[in-house]
Amino acid sequence: MDANSVRGSVNAVPYGIDFAADLGDDTVRRLADSMIHQRHFPRPAAQYAEAVKAVLAAGQIPPQSLAMSTRYPEAELLDFLRRLDRHLDELRPWPEP
Fold it and tell me: For 41-85, what is each residue's pLDDT tens digit?
């Protein structure tokens, strides 16, 4: 996955959680469910999951993606992405949306 694809897919995550009350487990579950069933995420979940893994491997969120959040600093977003990544893996195999 190239850097533009990673950034484009990861942009949707902070945008999707910026209005969440917190970044707790309920938010992780809701976002994963929305990705898997393509409720608010138009691309297949595998594309978002791959982008999340790329960001975690890099250890930083692309600046444009980070700018999508007005509430959460990078450290909190990275922690959220780690938990989202684990949860998505736990839910495999994913059903067809």
Answer: 999 999 999 999 999 999 999 999 999 888 999 999 999 999 999
Cis geometry, peptide bond prior to residue 93 (ω within 30 degrees of 0): yes
Give Cα 5 to chain centroid, integer Å. 13
Task: State the Cα–Cα distance between residues 79 and 23, nearest whole angstrom.
Answer: 9
Size of the chain, expressed as the number of residues it contains: 97
DSSP H helices, 1-97, are 3-17, 25-36, 45-58, 63-66, 74-90
Q: Where are the domains of the chain?
A: 3-91
